[in-house]
Amino acid sequence: MSSEELRTSFSDLAVSPHTQMDIQTGSSGDPPADEGVQVTCFTEDLHDVTLHFQIIRFSKQIYAWVGCNTAKFGHLYAAATTRPGNAVSVTSVLGGTSDNTGSSMARRLVLKTGLNIVLACNIPKDSPMLEAAAERKLVEKLRGLGYIKPRAGDANTSTAH
Question: CA 59, CA 151: separation in Å to the nearest integer?
Fold first, then answer.
């Protein structure tokens, strides 16, 4: 399937480039447990490849998919904080091992969001720059959607530029 066919397929599936369901939020700013989900899909062209993203926000977890040039599912990882000490544990749910592309991304997303993360990742293992760029775009979108709260120090540094 060519890149253009894939782009056409994605546009047929999406209602808009940034599909999102409106839901009510609780007093803490988090979606209530009994409400629906928020779905966001977007595509970025980076380093001569096309990255496709899908983010599904549930009440206490985020599912994210990152596809490189195709709609292939890739490896699936689950990451969550564990007790004691709030360390982050990651496991490979489907394909791959815990040292593959995606497992470290899932670990860092848990640290940034404070939520459980399920991450499907289809980025070539030998492309660390592509993985870093994909993670940056994903984190940027999560921050824009309000899933990552800015730290107190971040507000001061962003205004200094």
Answer: 22
Q: Which helix (H) or strand (E) holds 87?
A: strand 87-94
Structure tokens at 64: 């994210």
Note the pTM of the prediction, 2 decimals. 0.70
Contact (CB, 8 A) for 118 and 77: yes
Going from the C-alpha of 132 to that of each of 46, 95, 135, the distances in angstroms are 11, 21, 5
Task: Note the pLDDT tens digit of each residue in 57-91.
Answer: 998 899 999 999 888 888 899 999 998 888 899 98
Helix runs in 14-151, H state only: 103-113, 128-144
Tell me the Cα Rg of the chain.
Answer: 16
> Strands across the sheet with 38-46, in order?
38-46, 49-57, 61-68, 116-122, 75-82, 87-94
Contact 122, 66 (CB under 8 A): yes
